[in-house]
Each structure stands twice: as structure tokens, then as C-alpha cells.
Amino acid sequence: MRYLSTRGASPALAFDEVLLTGLARDGGLFLPESWPQLDLAALAGLDYPALAARVMLPFLGGRIGEADFTRLVEESYAGFSHKAVTPLKQIDSRTWLMELFHGPTLAFKDVALQLLGRLYDHVLAKRGQRITIVGATSGDTGSAAIEACRDRPAIDIFILHPEGRTSEVQRRQMTTVMSPNVRNIAIRGSFDDCQDLVKGLFADPSFRDEMHLGAVNSINWGRIMAQIVYYVAAGLALGAPRRRIAFAVPTGNFGNVYAGYAARAMGLPVEKFIVGSNSNDILTRFIQSGVMKMGAVHPTLSPSMDIQVSSNAERVLFDLCDRDPARLVRAMQQFRQSGEITLDPAQHKQLSDLFAGHRLDDEQTLAAMKGLYKETGELIDPHSAIGLAAARAVKLDPDIAIVALGTAHPAKFPDAVEKATGIRPPLPPALADLYERPERFTVLANDSAALKAHIRGQVAAGRAA
Ligand SMILES: *Cc1c(COP(=O)(O)O)cnc(C)c1O
User: Fold this and answer.
1) Closest C-alpha among 263, 305, 311 to residue 408
2) How far is 246 from 251, CA to CA, in rounded Å?
3) Active-site residue 272, yes or no?
4) For 179-189, what is each residue's pLDDT tens digit?
5) Is 414 in the pocket of ligand 1 (CB under 6 A)?
6) Is a pLDDT exceeding 90 seen at residue 367?
7) If you take atom 14 of ligand 1, which residue's CA is the nearest one?
8) Residue 109 in contact with ligand 1 by CB distance below 6 A
9) pTM of the shown model
10) 301: domain range?
11) Residue 95 forms beta bridges with which residues?
């Protein structure tokens, strides 16, 4: 199994190389050269870790041994607070919520990142290498990455957040981790400033090489791979391939729903992917109109979806261009120059046959949360509410079972839940004392030289210790 870049100008790489590289050198995203096919009958009845190991093994191309991989997968999901890892909860006669938020930081990103941190560490240790992961976060990714990388010998992780501008739960989930290889940096600036600082580090080749910089962003193939598993798990649990199934996914960077698309390419029958967006609706507009057009980013109640460029959409676009890198590159150039891509009618039909889009503004999101609470007594977070409301808004044949993906625990967004329902959801037991835990972080100016000096100093001190 080797991996190709969507832009066609990077050599094909093996799994471990793709894992450590992230973005291809030609600016493209990696994809497996062919899709391994699932034997659904043989997978039915396996528990989540066993299913996960079986589904993912073909993607490794022998670069990690089966026994090692199985152990890493088991360790990754042992810390989840629900034995089923991604349990399904029935909401009405044909809709289920798949709860992806039973990991350590209460958002679906744990499902992939818990494994990714361990895979990085394993691959690096074998190569005798270390890596310095640097990222900027406005919310869920930072804490999930920290939990995934803490105490892993081959990894140092630095996460930047804008000082005073993240929610208290989100900040504390990062800053209360006392592992010596974890450093939180509060930047005196905005989230965009943090992101620009990180981009600046990656754009400096000598610093990048000196520090062995790495990223864990959502374009990483390893994250997509790990997310394929829960689509298969839900399909099997509800009776696929005999029963028809659709998924509804609240979407930002298109990483989560792309993993479902990959599961379908591997042979899981899926009737439809319903994409839910907040007012940052570049993707739902794309599906409805065939035109991908960038807009300004609006802050919403579902901040993890406040994104206007959905990087993973490039992987679907590649298929819409018949996997022809030259066509894809032309489309991406057009997007960069004019901020717009227009599909031809055949491409648009192909896209809208499989995907449907639905957008909710904040008021509609609150109404969806309140409506579900009144109907069932369930509290859900604003992101999950968007997926669920989209599932109900799109008309499908009544025999199709719809799985809406629950991407965050309601306690992660207590203000929005309280606003919608009048009830403030308590943190689950493992995090109940979050507000009493000591915090540790360094405040730095919005200054690239100061940041580099800090990272150099901390990494050197860590290695000497
Ligand atoms: C990251 C995130 C999303 C968006 O997922 P994508 O893979 O970027 O589409 C949705 N909900 C929550 C809670 C998230 O943390």
C-alpha cells in the first residue's frame, strides 16, 4: 500500500512516511493508491478495538507489525469512558446519535488523535527520531492533541492559544496537563495571530529542520484512517449491508465526513452523507450550487466549525476530477486566484447524488437543542445539534436509518446548552475537578523571534533533564 498526492508531483510514499509528512511537498493531500475492500460479514460482532485493527491494517502496508498495531489500537481506546467507544443512541424511529465524545477531551477528535499520538511515538522510536509538534488552537484540537501526545518519549508538543479568548473549559483542558513534554503558550493576540506564528515557524526551513517540526492537523492521513472505523462500526451495528444507511455530519474541515466517504469507497453501503454547517457554510453551498466560494469567517455557537476553507474537500475534488492531478491542480489554482471553483454539471450531479447540505444559524441551532431536549430529555452540544437537525431537514426514503454524528459532549459547551435548555450540563466524573486543578502556561508577545527562542530553550532543557 502506497500513498499518492492529489497534486501528482510528489513521489508515492509508504504509510509511516505519510504519517510524519502530513501535507505532501507539492502542497497536495495524500490518498491510498487503491481502497482496500471490507469483508463486512467477517467484521460483524467484533468489539471496537478489534474492528479498528482489522479495518486499518491494510492501510499500513506492512510498515507496522500487526501485533504492535493491535496493541496501540487497544491502548488508544482503553481510556474511553464508554465500553462501546462510539455508542449509538436511538433518538426516534429511524435516527441514531453516534456518541463520539467519550474520549479524554470530550470531542470526536480524540478517536483519531489518541491513536495518532501513539503511532507517531512508535514510528519515531523505531527510527531513533524525535519530533516537535506545534499547533495553534481556538478550541478542541489543542486539548485533544495534548492528551494524545502527553508523556510520549519521542514527542515535544507546544500549543498556542490566544490569551483570554478561549472558553474556560477549553483552556483548562490544555493548561492543567502537567506532563513535562507539554507546553502551553498564551499569545497576546487573536487566534489568527497564533496561526500566523505557527505558519511562520513552518515556513522557516532551518528552524523546521533544527526542531523536527511536525503537525497533527486534520489533513493528516492517519486521522482520516482512524475515523473510517466508526462509520463501519455504526453500519454493522444497524444491519448493513442489508439495511440502507445514511450519515449526518456536522462539518468544518470536511475531515470527519471524508472518512465516511472513504468507508463507502471500501465497500460500506451508504445512501447519503448529509453535511451540516453553521453560518460558515462554504460546504453546504458547494453541495447545493456546485460553486465553492470562500466567504469571511463568522464566530458562532459551534466554534469548531468556524472555518471557511475546508482543506479535506480537496480529496473529494480529486475524485470529481477523475483522479487526474492536472485537472485538480487547475481547479486549486483557480480557487487561489479567484476564491472560487465551479463544478461542471456532471461533477455537480456526482457530488449532489451522494452529499446533501443543510445550514443552521445560531438561532436555529439553539432551537434544535431545545427541541431535542423537550422531545427526549437529551442534552446535546451545538455541533451535534447541527448534524441532527440536518438529518431531519433532508428528505430521504423512510426506510433509511440515519446516523447523526455527536461530535462533542454537551458539557464542553455549557453556555450554549444552558442558553438553549436552561440546564447547565455537569462535567463527567473524570473531569469533575477541572476547575480546581492548577494551570501552567507561558504568556508570550505576538512575536516570532520570541516564540522561536522559547521553543528552542524548552526543547533543549527537556532533553538535558
Ligand atoms: C473539529 C470538530 C468538528 C468539525 O470536524 P471536521 O472534521 O473539521 O469537519 C465538528 N464538531 C466538533 C465538536 C469538532 O471538534
Assistant:
1) 305
2) 15
3) no
4) 999 999 999 99
5) no
6) yes
7) 304
8) yes
9) 0.95
10) 88-103+221-421
11) 92, 402
Q: Which three cell numbers stand for residue 222?
A: 492517519
β-pair partners for 5: 30
Whether the upstream peptide bond of residue 241 has omega within 30° of 0, thus cis, is yes
Query: In the Cβ-directed half-sphere of 77, how many Cα atoms lie within 13 Å?
Result: 26
Residue appearing with cell numbers 463486512: 40
* Alpha-carbon gap, residue 213 to 304, rounded angstroms: 24
Residue 354 lies in a domain: yes
Alpha carbons 116 and 131: distance in angstroms, whole number: 13
* Helix H or strand E segment including 404: strand 401-406
172 within a domain of the structure (yes/no): no
3 state DSSP class of 359 = strand
Per residue in 95-148, pLDDT tens? 999 999 999 999 999 999 999 999 999 999 999 999 999 998 877 889 999 999
Tell me, using a 6 A CB cutoff, whether residue 107 lines ligand 1.
yes
Amino acid present at 29 = L
Ligand 1 touching residue 261 (CB < 6 A)? no
DSSP string covering 263-314: HHHTT---SEEEEEE-S--HHHHHHHHSEEE-------S-GGG--S--TTHH
Q: Which residue has its alpha carbon closest to ligand 1 atom 1?
A: 304
| H-helix or E-strand spanning residue 98 | strand 95-99
Name the H helices within 80-164. 109-127, 140-149
Rounded to whole angstroms, the Cα distance separating 369 from 351 reads 29
How far, CA to CA in Å, does 19 sit from each of 5, 216, 443?
13, 9, 31
What is the total count of domains within the chain?
1
- String of DSSP letters for 350-370: HHHHHEEEEE--HHHHHHHHH
138 DSSP 8-state letter: S
Of 98, 102, 108, which is best to mutate to test ligand 1, by the most ligand atoms within 8 angstroms of its C-beta? 108
In angstroms, rounded to a whole number, what is the distance separating the alpha carbons of residues 135 and 137?
A: 7
Copy the grid coordinates of residue 44.
460483524
Residue 294 CA to ligand 1 centre (angstroms): 19
Amino acid occupying residue 367? A
Q: Is 379 in the pocket of ligand 1 (CB under 6 A)?
A: no
From the CA of 407, give the closest atom in ligand 1.
13
User: Where do we find the cell 521553543?
Assistant: 455
Residue 402 lies in a domain: yes
**What does the pLDDT read at residue 9?**
92
Residue 437 lies in a domain: no
pLDDT, residue 17, reads 93
pLDDT in tens, 137-146: 877 889 999 9
CATH code for the domain in which residue 253 is found: 3.40.50.1100
